[in-house]
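Supplementary Text 2. Reproducibility record for the structural model of the 183-residue chain.

All settings were left at their defaults, and a single model was retained for analysis rather than an ensemble. We include the record here because the model underlies the residue-level annotations in Supplementary Table 4.
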Amino acid sequence: MPEVTNKEYSNISLNFNGASRTSEKAPTLRGTATVSDGSKTEFQVAAWGPIKAKTGGPDFYDITFTPGDPAAAARQVAQQRAGELGPVRNAVQGFEIREIGRGKIFERTDAELATNPKQPKLFGHGLVQLPSGPSYIDLSLWYRPAGREKGAFHQAFYSGNASPHDPKAAAAARAAKVAPEPR
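Retained model, structure tokens:
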């Protein structure tokens, strides 16, 4: 079997932003994301939160994606101002974002993580402009505590996946879930 040498992966990494302690307008988390759908697109990411849900749902963060390429960032701003989204080929069932470069990530409680510690601490969706067109991405971030890594100290951060949403896989996952027993 031939070895794959150029396989591109989607990823996201968010660090705590110290400036958010002194300014409520500063994002709580900052970082980068790389989304691969055949070509690689890089984004600067900022997240504000946690925000308490008014409906009693999980706490969430508002998140923005700014393309790393200045020309792509300018096109995104022009598209936002014009309100021209166009068709999105991989819409998320029950979740809608109307503005390109935006998203939401939700935070699991410690009790939820205790029942299944392999779950990501933060999960959600974003809507980004890729070379193939506007696309939803699935976000999964695991908490990485501060510590020593290969002899160097690092701060706590979140890292994980930022992959294009696959509607067929999501439908299969929903169908495979076992319904709770009636009480």
